[in-house]
């Protein structure tokens, strides 16, 4: 039997942090128009050299979307590096499921095959961060009112509403 990490264990938080470092390294170049032009050229050259295809010609709208994605992912990665929490792994796993779905959609519609490498990493980190929630009986957390996926104190002082039970 494969032993998975429990979300409350330090090893799980190391996995959350490792996925964040991967995101930071891979997406930092997408965060500005100047660095994205370099990344675009490098990905296209690599794809052509490996026979996996190239990206479409660079245009302002593609650059805008790459920069938006890169900026958000860089900020999200820094948060998970500086303050990894179990809920960050859960949310990142959900986000990776969405990213993998859209990557699969793009691949099915003719995107460069170099995308398969990124797809594989998305699926792997998604599984590493989501499976422990299911295997340890923590999912879905909304069915178990005793589970706090935020791993924080509850109440207005902590920025969370008080439970409505017993009012």
Give an account of the 3D structure.
The protein has 167 residues and is mainly alpha-helical. The protein contains five helices and no strands. Helix 1 runs antiparallel to helix 3 and helix 4 runs antiparallel to helix 5. The chain starts with 9 loop residues before the first helix and ends in a 32-residue tail after the last helix. The model has no long low-confidence stretch (mean pLDDT 86).
Write the layout of secondary structure elements.
Layout: H1 10-27, H2 33-49, H3 60-82, H4 86-108, H5 115-135
Helix pairs in contact: 1-3, 1-4, 4-5
Question: What can be said about this structure in brief?
Answer:
The protein is mainly alpha-helical and about 170 residues long.
Short descriptors:
globular, mainly alpha, 167 residues, single chain
Low-confidence stretches: none
- The counted number of beta strands is 0
Average residue-wise pLDDT: 86
Query: What percentage of residues falls in helices of 4 or more residues?
Result: 55-70%
Q: Could you give a short account of the major beta sheet?
A: none
Percent of residues in beta strands? under 5%
- What gyration radius follows from the Cα positions, in whole Å? 19 Å
Query: Treating each run of at least 4 consecutive H or I residues as one helix, how many helices?
Result: 5
